[in-house]
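Late entry, evening session. Most of the bench is empty. Finally got around to the prediction I had been postponing all week. Sequence below, unchanged from the version circulated by S.P.
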Amino acid sequence: MMETREVWLFRNSFPGVKLPFYPRGGGINCFSPGKTEEHSPQDFCEICWVARGSCIFDFGNIRAEVHSGESIFRLPGERRFKQVSGRENAVIYYVTFDGKNASEIMQSFGYKRGAIPSGKCPVILFDRIFRDLVSTSENDYRKLCASYLELMAKMAPSPPEPETSSFLHECLHRIKLNSADCNFNINALADELGVHRSTINRAITLETGLTPHKYLENCRVDYAVELLVNSNVPISEVARSAGFSRTNYFCRIIKQRTGMTPGELRKAPK
């Protein structure tokens, strides 16, 4: 399980700035199985994106189980209740915003209520929002609104990938969604799908030319490189966030793939 930090950045006012809506806060929930959280209704919108595990969200009229790679939004005045489902920890990124146009803007994207299959949680975008929430610059307030709109756009249901079979698509989809979990491997995938490991190996190798293990490792490396280049997250946390349980092995793999150590890659000209 990756280490997470709680972020509580709630702003009370935006003096002298007229905005289409007002970003209010954000954070990361890291919940153990069975954990519940309930708050009284508030007059703001909330976007939640499950980065790992699964969680039941109950907003009164809307109740849905949201899994890793899915998002959900809550409107002002709705109940705020979360309960972890399943047997693994859940990691949920969220942001809040309000203003007289907030609800209209959120609903204008046309998303269904309930779980939205949005794809992998955009951790880098959330981190940017968390950093900018502490700014006091008027221009940064406006940029923050743009980041929120970018997040809303990213919630769009992910189109299905090209596939030669529904089974192959399901294998690749689950590998990508679970790649950040260091405990996830091809044996776990085989157990989930109820097939023998060799069946998965044959399907993925024939289609991609890579073994399932190598495909999983590539997903982890791609995400790690993105974090290294675009964030200041400590290298040890990058390793955990990308699904590598050992930092020394992570550093060796990055060196093999890129020709640079994680530190050198981070300092390289963009």
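Two things to note before I forget:
The first strand starts at residue 22 and ends at 31.
The two ends are 30 Å apart (CA to CA).
Will write this up properly tomorrow.
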